[in-house]
Amino acid sequence: MSTTTDRETSLDGLRHRIDELDSQLHALLMERAQVGAGIAAARLASGAESVVFQPDREADLMRHLVERHEGVLPLATVEHLWRELISASLRLQGDFQLHLDGSADLLGMLDLARFHFGFSCELVPGADAADVVGSVAASDGDLGLIALQDRADLPWWRGLSTDGAEVIARLPFLVLDERPADMPALVISRSVAETVKRDTLVFDARWTGVLPGNLMNEGLEVVSFHRSASGVDALLAVSAHLSEDEIFKACADAGAEPDVLRLVGGYSAPIDVEGDADDDFDAAASEGLTE
Ligand SMILES: O=C(O)C(=O)C[C@]1(C(=O)O)C=C[C@@H](O)C=C1
């Protein structure tokens, strides 16, 4: 005669438990989609014309997942599942296309696009980052995915603005060792509502001559930079707590005030699940800045 423990640990017993869990999960997923459709209907009723991304809400959801998470399921798997669910919700609100930076590594780009936006999202290859910025600014609710390089071939971010296309997210959102879809990138969209809360602001900053060498010490991250004959363009990520005056002062303390400082978006800072996210970035990037 089999005991309860035998039934719980036998192959048949475990499969039976998986069937039960799948059925509960499926019911919950269907209910979640229904709630998403409710949000879509409420948006439509409020007169919203196109898909409305809520990057800060998405970041909150992810943060809660990280806080609750335990056990053997890889966190990156959970992230991907939720990204697919969120994308499904978005598609219930309307169609949108994702414009891809065609100058970046294609496989890395596709991996990231599919991981973050799911498999039903229509992908549109763009020539390069500047082309993606133009397409998103001219669209009615499309998104763009632009690969981040420490040294950019062109200062593509000059095309961003808070009344055109702006930065809304930075990927990957969960910083994990050896994670899938780990190409560093920015997501851009047409300008999002003022009510969006973001802890990091992104600026187009320009200096004639060289870039101050120790901006990072002042709490300013050079996300990407482009050097030309006349000077340096930088895409700066800065804590949203700092005012523009404080940013100018921090730059002056680091060596020189920029000639141009223009807000071009913001995002909820990625979560470094295993350690210090800043480690990867600046050691590599800042080395080449003051040559
Ligand atoms: O909360 C919303 O406003 C939603 O539209 C729902 C939802 C989700 O599926 O959780 C979907 C898309 C948004 O970008 C954020 C969250």
From TrEMBL:
Entry protein name: chorismate mutase
EC number: 5.4.99.5
SUPFAM superfamilies tied to this protein: Chorismate mutase II
Lineage summary: Bacteria, Pseudomonadati, Pseudomonadota, Alphaproteobacteria, Hyphomicrobiales
Gene Ontology molecular-function annotations: chorismate mutase activity
Example GO BP: chorismate metabolic process
Stored InterPro entries: Chorismate_II_sf, CM_dom_sf, CM_II_prokaryot
Coiled-coil segments: none
Residue ranges of every copy of the Chorismate mutase domain listed in the record: 5-97
The organism's place on the tree of life at top rank: Bacteria
